[in-house]
């Protein structure tokens, strides 16, 4: 059983479960927005993207962010997914991170967008 993220209960009052594609999307989101040091038992986990959204917007920063995200996804989810592309684009007060990926055992590519408020280290 895959736990739903963020943790919640289902209609029966039990721990919520998610389907495989939703579960992998939830795992990607956790890697993207968990700050290194935030998890006590796994202090290296995460990507550090939350700290980068406070930096000035520049082409070099977008390229560095893409590489940071790709390496974090490979490190933490490399056994589950293959990442084809990552794009990082600011739009107003939100940073949109778009990841194109597929599950290792699947041949269908999926594209998911993960919005993150800029100017917020959440």
From TrEMBL:
The record places domain IraD/Gp25-like at 21-100
What top-level branch of life does the organism fall under?
Answer: Bacteria
Quote the protein name from its UniProt record.
IraD/Gp25-like domain-containing protein
Give the organism, scientific name: Paraburkholderia rhizosphaerae
């Amino acid at each position: 059983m895959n736990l739903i993220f963020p943790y919640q209960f289902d209609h029966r009052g039990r721990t919520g479960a998610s389907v495989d594609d939703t579960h992998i999307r939830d795992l990607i989101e956790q890697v993207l927005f968990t700050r290194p040091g935030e998890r006590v038992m796994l202090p290296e986990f995460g990507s550090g993207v939350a700290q980068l959204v406070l930096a000035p917007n520049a082409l070099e920063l977008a390229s560095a962010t893409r590489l940071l995200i790709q390496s974090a996804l490979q490190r933490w989810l490399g056994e589950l997914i293959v990442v084809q592309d990552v794009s990082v684009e600011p739009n107003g007060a939100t940073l949109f991170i778009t990841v194109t990926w597929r599950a290792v055992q699947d041949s269908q590519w999926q594209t998911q967008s993960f919005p993150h408020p800029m100017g917020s280290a959440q």
